[in-house]
Amino acid sequence: MAEELVTGSIAAPGFSGLNTQDSSIQLDSGFALEANNCVIDRYGRVGARKGWTKVNSTAASTGAFRAIYELVKDDGTVVISAANNKIYTGTTTLTEAVVRNSDDTANLTYTISDDNWQISGMPYDTGATPSGHAILAQDGHPTLVYHKLGATAHAHTGSYGFQRLGDIATNLPTGHTVSSFMPNCVMTAYGRVWAANISGDTQTVYFSDLLNPAEWQTGTSGYLNISEVVPNNDPIVAIANHNGFLIIFCSKQ
User: Fold this and answer.
1) Containing H/E element for 128?
2) Residue 129: domain span
3) What is the rounded distance in angstroms from the CA atom of residue 231 to the CA atom of residue 236?
């Protein structure tokens, strides 16, 4: 026998979380059977994620974008992205990056073979207008820095552009050169840039001088060698910071 239709109100859909185990006909209306395009908010609740807005009418290349980072500079922000073995800056208009030499007089031949960049930003020095820096790291590639170019290395003048880190700072970590300091992990925390997972040097975390992402040998820069506490040469695969701690991830530790 047909029954009268009854309307119901779901005030907070998915508030109770995702439940795929119990029968759907027995679930309270606060449970969700599917959770698409959602986030977990700071209170542990399921919430709707804001939609995406396309900023380009066309893609920069046929490859997929695999890295993106927004650097906050003293004169605004810039988005750095990577796809199809290229690095770009910009949003609505993407500009393919070139790598400049140490005195900013010519482009260098810099070959990019993959798009697995890790990018981390940090201002140089303090004050009202600190000079923003972005450090780009990828296995098998000399570390790059995006900063203000100038005829004098690390002069913090002129327009922003890319250079190899070793070309603006002769003080790379002891024992490393432009062609050997090629970390696969990089992050910024506690006023320093941290880098790790270097071919042939996989159990060392290097950190820059305080508030100077280009100085890796003098000042308060240094390194952490974990070989005495982590056995079997277990390599570092990632680094992170959380709750005042530096967290080092190895393949098995």
Assistant:
1) none
2) 65-250
3) 12
Please report where in the chains the tokens 């007089």 appear, as a residue. 105
- List the structure tokens of 187: 């992050």
Q: In the chain, what is the straight-line distance between the N-terminal and C-terminal CA atoms, in Å? A: 64
**72 assigned to some structural domain:** yes
Asked if residue 26 and residue 113 are part of one domain, the reply reads no
What is the C-alpha separation between 84 and 117, in angstroms, rounded?
Answer: 12
- Identity of the residue numbered 167: D
pLDDT at residue 117 in the model: 97
Containing H/E element for 211? Answer: none
DSSP 165: H
Which residues neighbour 241 within 8 Å (Cβ) at sequence distance 6 or greater?
Answer: 187, 189, 190, 247
Tokens of 97: 């990056």
Q: For residue 40, tell me if it sits in a domain.
A: yes
Is residue 144 a contact partner of residue 162, using CB atoms and an 8 Å limit?
yes
Q: What are 70-96's pLDDT values in tens digits?
A: 998 878 899 999 999 999 999 888 999
